[in-house]
Each structure stands twice: as structure tokens, then as C-alpha cells.
Write a structure and sequence with these properties.
The complex is a heterodimer of chains A (437) and B (456).
Chain A lengths: L5 E3 L2 E3 L3 E3 L8 H10 L3 E3 L14 E6 L2 E8 L8 H14 L4 E6 L5 H13 L4 E5 L13 H4 L2 H14 L4 E4 L7 H10 L4 E4 L3 E3 L2 E2 L6 E2 L9 E4 L4 H14 L4 E4 L5 H9 L2 E6 L1 H6 L4 H14 L5 H4 L18 E6 L9 H9 L4 E5 L12 E5 L9 H5 L6 E6 L8 H11 L8 H4 L1
Helix pairs in contact in A: 3-5, 5-6, 6-7, 8-10
Chain B lengths: L11 H7 L9 H10 L7 H5 L6 H9 L3 H11 L3 H7 L6 H4 L12 H14 L14 E5 L3 H12 L3 E6 L7 H4 L8 H12 L4 E4 L9 H7 L2 E4 L3 E4 L12 E3 H10 L10 E5 L3 H13 L3 E5 L11 H9 L3 E3 L2 E9 L1 E13 L6 E4 L5 E4 L2 E4 L3 E3 L12 E2 L2 E2 L13 E3 L2 H4 L4 H20 L1 H4 L6
Parallel strand pairs in B: 1-2, 1-4, 2-3, 4-18, 6-14, 7-8, 7-14, 8-9
Antiparallel strand pairs in B: 5-15, 10-11, 11-12, 11-13, 16-17
Helix pairs in contact in B: 2-4, 4-5, 4-8, 5-8, 6-8, 9-11, 9-17, 13-14, 14-15
The chains are: A alpha/beta (437), B alpha/beta (456).
Amino acid sequence: MADLSTNFAGIKSPNPFWLASGPPTNTAGQVMRAFDAGWGGAVWKTIGEPIINTVSRYGGIDLGSQKLMGFNNIELISDRPIEDNLREIAEVKRRYPRNAVIASLMVESRRQSWHEMVARAEDAGCDGLELNFGCPHGMSERGMGAAVGQVPEYTTMITEWVKEVARTPVIVKLTPNVTDVTRMAIAAEQGGADGISLINTINSLMSVNLDTLAPTPTVRGKSSHGGYCGPAVKPIALHMVASCAKRVKIPVSGIGGIATWQDAAEFVTLGARSLQVCTAAMHYGFRIVEDMIDGLEQYLEAKGFASLKELEGRAIESVTDWGNLDLNYKIIAEIDAEKCIGCHLCYVACEDGAHQCIEEYPKPQGANGGNGAMRVPRVIEEDCVGCNLCALVCPVAGCITMKEISTGLPAMSWNDRVRRQQREAGIAYTPSLWENA
Amino acid sequence: MALINIAPKLTPEQYEHNFRDISPPLTPQQARIESARCLFCFDAPCIKACPTRIDVPSFIKKITTGNLKGSARVILSANILGESCGRVCPTEVLCEGACVMNEQGERPIEIGRLQRYAVDYVLDNNIRLFAAGAANGRRVACIGSGPASLACAGELAKWGYEVEVYDRNEQPGGLNTYGIAAYKTRAADSLREVKLVADLGVKFHQGVEVGNDISLVALESKFDAIFIGVGLGDTSALKLPGEDLEGVYGALEFIEPTKVRPFEGIDVGRRVVVIGAGNTAVDVVTAARRLGAEQVSLVYRRGAREMSAFKYEYELAQKDGVMFHWHTQPIGIVGNGHVEGVRCVRTRLVGEGRKAKVEPLPETAFVIPADMVVGALGQQPLLSLVQMLPGIIIENEHLVVDRETGQTGNPRYFAGGDCVNGGREVVDAVAEGMRAARGIDAMLSSSAALQGGMPG
């Protein structure tokens, strides 16, 4: 079996799957059950001066019959006393020494407060610290969470305070609610962080109840923006993880919509060393980690990777600026009339939403279901721009595929083109503003 | 009822259980999941497979968004009998048979049940979706109050026509009220749909037989156009010796009581033999079993492959424990005053397919004992009323109409439904009723009509 064991900046766990800081890691009972189910680690629900939570805390968005495509919450950090949380961390570590327990911390932005909190958490025996600079609601209004994570100077400064006293690895958890998350990643690294984790939840307003006109989740007719997460945010998280992994040397813990081993593997290819999961565990329970581990092992073995480490960052170099993409690469859609069920979704999508390059003709006699009565789509190859839309809307697996067409031209990106034009015009190459950034 | 060997009565609960909805209404949860399965095809084959061209993807999409009123509007605009069609349409050979899900080996969307779900919402909540159009001063009579007339009348009323329906039965609705198996739809369901049409201002004259109680001449003097939606007549005679014995019935005569009377008051023989193998024959055998008959046999001179009943109907009869006598031709009803059995011979088919000739086999006569015999060989045409009208053309016992307009050879008269198509589905009758409505409107709106010169 492929080796899934993980060493994240010195924090060791039997596999990369950690429960993210949140409701599933609120108590020792939950964390121990999670470890029994197979989770490699757990980031404790953020510890700080106890808060009071509202009643009605979560909101969801469904897609068709799929529940919780997206999820949000207006819950704050732990509402339990600091000493209870720390005592339970100590108990969990005593009983599960091989699993990673990371204390997520959030206190007021005073040096002394952070020094005291760090010492207490480490005395409890945690394997590492995660600084919650990401919580987007409630705490940020009090100068904590995202209020820190949105200002690079604060991020650096508080990380430095923590590092002055910390004996265990320090992970800074980043908020996505910024214009450029890589600046925050760099700020954390400059402050001495041993790793970063991202993304925290995204500012969101879940929905409005159209009968009461109250936003959700509703607290006596009102609501507040909450943190958005779940499968819908995964592409956003992948982009931010990849961007940060390119810019910092410290390891990255990937968070955001991870629900399957495929999700996990994708994050790893983009540079994540450990993976944090919350919504999926809240939706289906701790048992989901079983197939995440099993599936990831099978995948690594099938692809010939001896360990997860070998997969880490494999796709990262392929993430590049648009200006570096080859403009002479060409694919076109190919529709398998045999497999076509005649829903015409590709046709209308191309006709109304893309480039009008699908025509329809009677399904050939003798083809599967072909009696001449059913019309099937066909790609007008010379017009197809290879946009993928038809393949994306087709409900039949493998019916529409994109096949590469040789243009006979050498690779040439936009940037290549600009450079060549400038060279031919005798102008010295001037990098764009973005290339300088 | 002149039966001497009556099957023991069941309890009211057993009757209700036996005649319960064979396809129960969807729950909101089921409707949510089922509607979400729909791919929302463009130029969808289910629409083309529906004789009334209901925009199926559109109404299902509206169910997914909780817009049930809008969904029902899509359905009922195309087919005012959308509720009963949702219940009784042979969807497996129409919309659901055309569903693209079949192409990938998946269960088709339950279009019929979703359709009923949406329409039930507006019927249950008394939501009125349509109003009569501003009166245009023109008047149309519909003869018969079955699906074809209802569709024609409803459509014309929306456009401002003053429509009156004449029907010989006590209750309106035609076969929807009197002739469809009770486990598919009850008379009360049919009357709810009639109310949709009545709400548009259409007047119903029930218990009035045109030709008897009121003449065509009288109708012609009062109305600008007349729609003939009389359907078919009595069940065809068996033309067998002994047919007059007590205990021999026609299919509709047998089914009608199950629609309009309490089940416990309906006598059924212990042993019932049904002659014929169409959908109506299945309605009879299944109803007989549900009423408590102990032994129900279906006798057909051809084989199972040749039976005209849909596969789904055949399976229903199989599940009900009906005995099938294939390649068996009745040659007489035996009995002494009362029916005691059906004398039959075995047959074989000579030739291929539906045109194969039935040949009785010698020395094979036998008697199937029976306390009740029901003939289900189709209905007689009911065209005596109109056959004397100038211009009317009747071919193969069907009224001939223009394919585009539903107009008969006599320009004042339009027609649709079973009297034209020889006996098809409710949805076909609706489509033909609506076609005639468009035809009538086109004729009466034409300039010639506006100048007062009525054709014919």
C-alpha cells in the first residue's frame, strides 16, 4: 500500500486527513470517535475566551436532489471554557498519541494574550498550533479572525508574537476574503509561520426566505453574513492553494470542499501536504474518511506512486498565467451518435450559449435506437472552437469527447506573440505590469 | 342483475383496497426527486410523443422550482384534461416511452404522475387558471360531453365563444366518467375536470339526447357550428347463439356501475368469462377480480402476441390472477335461461401478424363454465344521428374529417374523438377536440363568416 503518512512541518499523522477546526472537533468525544473512524488528525474547534452563539447557525444551498452543494454558518469559536477544551486535548493526546491534535487559537490582538494562550495550549500537549486569522463573522467585528488575516502587517506581527514563545509548529489559517491571498501567505511566512492552511470560509449571505423576507440562517427575523464552504467552494480553494504554494516555501494545508479522495488528491497535486475537512463530515459523519483513505491508496498504487509525498505539487507547474497558454493548441468536440440519447442539450447550449457549431441530423439507421426518427447532433468541425460546453452539458458519460487536432503550428502563447511582435518592430521587450508583480 | 351464482360480497375496506389508485399520487418529496431527474431536454421527444403536445420539460422544470400553478398552466393550456391524462394515458407508449432516459437504460421520468401532481395542486386548491374570453357573439354546440367535446368546448370558451354541450347521460364526462377502470380514475375525478370547463361558462345539458329530445335542425338554428363528439355506442354484439341468456353483458354495461355505484351493490358472478383481448377486456377482467369474482377467464381467438391490449394492461391482468385462453374461439353461450358456460373451439393462425387468418381446429370443442359472460369486442359506431346530414362522409364506420381542421364534409359540422378515430385514448380525443376548436374558430373568424354568410 502507498504510504499516506504525513509530516506537516513536524506535525506527524498516519494520513493527511485532518478534521478542520469547526463543529466536528468541538469535544474530545467527537475527536476520539473521528480517530477511531480513521482520521489522521484534528484541528480543535478554535479556543479562546468563550463566546455566546446565536440559535440558528447554519444555512445550506441544494442543487437538484443534491443537498448542501454549499453550506454556511454564523457560528463562532468554541463556546466552552478554555480549561475544558485544554483538558480534553490532553486526554485525547494521551489516548491517541499517534494522531495529530492541533489547537486552533484566537485571542484578542495583544501580545501578552497570545503568549499566555500559546503556553496553555502547548502545556495541554497539542502537536501544533493553528492561528485562526480567518473567521469571517462575529469575531472579526471584535478585531480578531479575518480582521487580522485581512491585513498583512497584523498577520506578520501576531505570527511573530506566537513564534516568540511557541515550542510546536505554528500554522497560520488564511481567509479567502482578500483581494490577493498570496500576500497574506507571504506575510505569515515572514512572521515565521511553519505552515499555512487555507481556505477559511468565504463571506456569504445564504438565502432569503421568500415568505418571511428574512435572510437565512434566521435569528429572529435577521441574519448576518456567514462563512461559505462545502463542495461549491472547492474550485476557489484549489486556486488559492495553488497560488500560495507557488509563492511560499512553508507547507500548505488544503481546505475547502474536500469530500472525496479525488478532491484530496487534486489538492495534493496543487501543493497541499495535509487536507482538512469539515462540511463533508458534518453532512455524512466521520465514516466518510474510510473511502478517502482507501481510494487515495488505490489511486496512488494504480499510478505507481509509493507515497502521497510523491504526488505533492505534481500539477503546480501546469498552473500558469493565461498569457503562457499555447494559442496553437486545438481540440474539437466529437459526438458519438451511438451513445447519444437525443436530449439536444448540447445543441441548444452551443446554439444559444456558444458558437453555433452543432447541427442535427436523423440518427443513422441501425445505430443504437436508430430508426431514422430520432435526430442526433453533429459537430460542424470547421466552426468548433473547442470550448467544451457541449461535453460539459451532455448527460451521457463518454458521448461527447474533445479530440486534439493538429494545427501543424509550433506552440505559441500570447506572451510569445507579444515578444515576437516587439522584436520584429525593434522594440525592447517590456514586461507587463502583471509580470512584474 | 340477473345472476344466480353471485360472488360473495367483500367488506367496504376490501373494495376500497381493490380499487385503490393503481398509480398513487406523488408526495411532494417524490415529486421533488422525480422532477429533478428530468434532463430538461431541448426539442424534447416526450413533447412530440404527446398527441396534445404538452410542453413536458417546461412543466417539470416548474415543479422543480415549486411553481406548481405555472406548471399546471403549461399542462392545462395544452390539454384541459391533463389530470385524467396523467392518470390514464398509456404513457409507456407515449411520453414516457419517448423519454431519452430509455436510451441509456434508465427508468424514464414519471411524466404522467408528475403531470397529475401539478394539476391536482390547482384542482385541490380551487385555483382558476383560465377565464372565459370576451364574448364574440358566436355560438357553438357540442354533442356529447366526453373528452373530445370538453376539450373543444373549453378551448372555444377561452376565446369568447358561447358553448353549450348536449349529452344523453345523467352525468357529463363521457367515458372518463362512465368507462375507465375505477382504479385508474373515479367518476368524481372526471367531474372535477368537467368543472374546469363549466367554470369557463360552458353550459351542460345533461340527459338530453340530440335527435330525440332536440333535433339537429333546432341546433343548427341556434348555433353557428356544431361539434360532434358522440364517441361510440354500445358494446358490439357477440353474434353467438345463447347471447340472450341471463348473465351475458357488454363491457361498458359491466364497467359503468363500478363508476357510478357503490361497489358493494354490484353483483359479479363467481366465474366470469370475458371475450376479447383489448384494453377494455383488461378493464373488465381486472374489475371482475376486484369485485370478488373467484375465477376470471379471458378468451381470445388469437394468441398473446396478437392481443391489442397494451403490455402494461396485459401485465395488470396477469397480476390479478386472470386465466388466459389463447387461440380459443367462442362458438356459443350455453345455459338454461341463465348462462352456464361458453362453448369454445381451439384455433390456429394461418399466416403472419395481425392479418393471419384464424382457423378453428376440428374436434376441439369444450365448455368453459361461467356464471357471467362479458363481451369486450369493441363498441358499435353511433352515427345514425349524423349519417343523413348532407355532405357527411362515413368510411369504415368512422366519421371522416379534415386532418387539419376536424371539419366534416358538412361545413357546419366538426367532429373528433372516438366517433372519428374508432376508439383511441383520452389524449387523442382531447387533441381532436382542440383541433376542431381551432378549425371552428378559423372558419367563424374568416371574412366570409364575418360578413354573415355562413357556409353550408
